[in-house]
């Protein structure tokens, strides 16, 4: 075994997006592409002798990438690497392992909700000591290194066998192949009342269905729901992780998790349904014939946190990403706690959680979690809901409706135009920016524009600034339209349009969401000329 130094030249396209570097598998398979990025991570950190966690969502190219990264870590002087069995770790489990083992950081291989397989996507991101995604000052340093890289180091050796737990040496570096499910399951048991949930799931009345969409949560969900909590076998569907996720988008929303939606909206529907994404950090919650909007889910979790073991002492505060509806803001106000509004992406919650300013965080994109780790956590949200149901003894629909009755309902929808031409998408946003001054005061039917701006965020802990985080058009009655370009897509651009209005009157809360938002949808078209710039008649995904 010897360390070799390989000459290389920079790729110019290795700028991390909302959640790490995401590209087509074919891009990652170019000679030196993965290696350049990994060396750029190592060069921007002091990792000599340190412990790192390594794992991925099991998608195509995961195995090869893990072996390459292990050999590079050894060549770069890393002391020890904790790697999940078969190289698989869900994103929340990776965050859990970093924290539980006081690791210096971790490398997570995932393109999350993007499709996998030879023609799908791959991704890589670096997480810091707190277990969370690296903040922008670190990802920018990594990106700068990718622009000037001239060489990387790698150990010449055979691959390590990752199929069972054990300790190995790779050059001077220790490799520990870990049980990737157990520590995470124990963390969940410390937060939730497993006894109460077991009673609910084994009582014979309540039925649930968990769709892992052929992605990483399958083994975790089976261990927790079927083995630990006694749900009957078959509760977890699509529970074997596949390299191509069975050809689907492992994205838990109404379009890409249609199989589960059909079950929950069909005859003999179970009482509770849930799905998670490729890397296990997202969740969708469904009741019998009922969809829980993720922004509402965050608010319901916050409003009911006192019923749940791990949170009954109260919450320090809550945080939501800017495009997430303001539903949770009202709950926070009632609880008398602070509510922070951050840019899109989990990395912005890290400082708030570390500084104990927030306990629970969430995004409209089916992401919720708390200070137990520093990533969003799909199964955590599912267990939170089950715990609430077990305590309250009510259906999902009743829990959400009683929440609306108390706090009012934020009608909320996101319209995604996926894989449109980048040029048109950029023009769409830029022409909105040019309209900011002229929009203020303009009236559209019952709506008058109060403000039009670009969202900018100053981190209350370290003062760092993130600007141009989404175009906001706010109306005098509190309604909003937000426009953003996705930072996770790999083909062309994805335009996201977020629509929100508030209805305090419980007799008007049963309207269909798209119906309730139809005026705002028309105003968005009038102001932004979406059809013209995207060349599309309708969104690809409506949530
Ligand atoms: C999307 C979501 C964002 C989420 C990010 C990563 O980003 O909107 O809320 O944090 O994905 O989620 P974008 O830039 O495409 O809107 V995941 O599950 O990839 O880790
Ligand atoms: Co994800």
Query: Helix/strand/pairing class, anyone?
Result: alpha/beta
Number of helical segments? 18
Total of domains: 3
Give helix % range: 25-40%
The major sheet is characterized as: 7 strands, mixed
CATH structural fold name of the largest domain: Alpha-D-Glucose-1,6-Bisphosphate, Chain A, domain 3
According to DSSP, the number of beta strands is 27
Plain-language structure description:
The radius of gyration is 23 Å and the shape is globular. By secondary structure, it is of the alpha/beta class. It is 33% helix and 26% strand. A hairpin with a 4-residue loop joins strand 24 and strand 25. Helix 2 (33-43) crosses helix 3, helix 7 packs across helix 13 (378-392) and helix 10 (294-304) runs parallel beside helix 11 (327-335). The protein contains 18 helices and 27 strands. It has 3 domains: 2-179, Alpha-D-Glucose-1,6-Bisphosphate, subunit A, domain 3 (Alpha-D-Glucose-1,6-Bisphosphate, Chain A, domain 3, 3-Layer(aba) Sandwich); 184-407, 3-Layer(aba) Sandwich (Alpha-D-Glucose-1,6-Bisphosphate, Chain A, domain 3), CATH 3.40.120.10; 409-542, Alpha-D-phosphohexomutase, C-terminal domain (TATA-Binding Protein), CATH 3.30.310. The protein binds alpha-D-glucose-1-phosphate-6-vanadate (VG1) and cobalt (II) ion (CO).
């Amino acid at each position: 075994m010897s360390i070799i130094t390989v000459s290389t030249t920079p790729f110019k396209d290795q700028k991390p997006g909302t959640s790490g570097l995401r590209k087509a598998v074919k891009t990652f398979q170019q000679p030196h592409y993965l290696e350049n990025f990994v060396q750029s991570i190592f060069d921007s950190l002091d990792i000599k002798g340190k412990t790192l966690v390594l794992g991925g969502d099991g998608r195509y190219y995961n195995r090869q990438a893990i072996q390459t990264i292990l050999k590079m870590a050894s060549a770069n002087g890393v002391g020890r690497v904790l790697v999940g069995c078969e190289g698989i770790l869900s994103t929340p489990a990776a965050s859990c392992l970093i924290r539980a083992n006081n690791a210096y950081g971790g490398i997570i291989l995932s393109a999350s909700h993007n499709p996998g397989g030879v023609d799908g996507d791959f991704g890589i991101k670096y997480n810091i000591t707190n277990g969370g995604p690296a903040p922008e000052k670190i990802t920018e340093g990594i990106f700068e290194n990718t622009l000037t890289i001239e060489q990387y180091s790698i150990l010449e050796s055979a691959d390590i066998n990752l199929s069972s737990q054990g300790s190995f040496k790779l050059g001077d570096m220790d490799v520990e192949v870990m049980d990737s499910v157990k520590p995470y399951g124990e963390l969940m048991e410390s937060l939730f009342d497993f006894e109460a949930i077991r009673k609910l799931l084994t009582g014979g009345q309540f039925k649930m269905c968990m769709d892992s969409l052929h992605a990483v949560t399958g083994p975790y969900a089976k261990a927790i729901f079927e083995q630990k909590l006694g749900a009957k076998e078959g509760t977890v569907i699509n529970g074997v992780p596949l390299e191509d996720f069975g050809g689907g988008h492992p994205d838990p929303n109404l379009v890409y998790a249609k199989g589960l939606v059909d079950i929950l909206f069909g005859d003999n529907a179970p009482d509770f349904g849930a799905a998670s994404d490729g890397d296990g950090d997202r969740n969708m919650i469904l009741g019998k014939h009922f969809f829980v909007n993720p922004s509402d889910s965050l608010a319901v979790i916050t409003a009911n946190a006192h019923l749940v073991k791990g949170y009954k002492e109260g919450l320090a505060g809550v945080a939501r990403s800017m495009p997430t509806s303001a539903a949770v803001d009202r709950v926070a106000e009632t609880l008398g706690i602070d509510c922070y509004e951050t840019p899109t992406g989990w990395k912005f919650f890290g400082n708030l959680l570390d500084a104990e300013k927030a306990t629970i965080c969430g995004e409209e994109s089916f992401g919720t979690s708390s200070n137990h780790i520093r990533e969003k956590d799909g199964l955590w949200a599912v267990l939170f809901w089950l715990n609430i149901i077990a305590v309250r003894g009510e259906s999902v629909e009743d829990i959400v409706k009683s929440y609306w009755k108390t706090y009012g309902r934020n009608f909320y929808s996101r319209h995604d135009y996926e894989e449109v031409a980048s040029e048109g998408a950029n023009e769409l946003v830029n022409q909105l920016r040019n309209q900011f001054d002229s929009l203020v005061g303009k009236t559209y039917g019952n709506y008058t524009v109060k403000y039009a701006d670009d969202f900018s965020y100053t981190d209350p802990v370290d003062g760092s600034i993130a600007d141009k985080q989404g175009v906001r058009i706010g109306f005098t009655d509190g309604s909003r339209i937000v426009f953003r370009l996705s930072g996770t897509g790999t083909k062309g651009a994805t335009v996201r349009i977020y629509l929100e209005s508030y209805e305090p009157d419980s007799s008007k809360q049963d309207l269909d969401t798209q119906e309730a938002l139809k005026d705002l949808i028309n105003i968005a078209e009038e102001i932004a000329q979406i059809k013209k710039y995207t060349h599309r008649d309708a969104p690809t995904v409506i949530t």
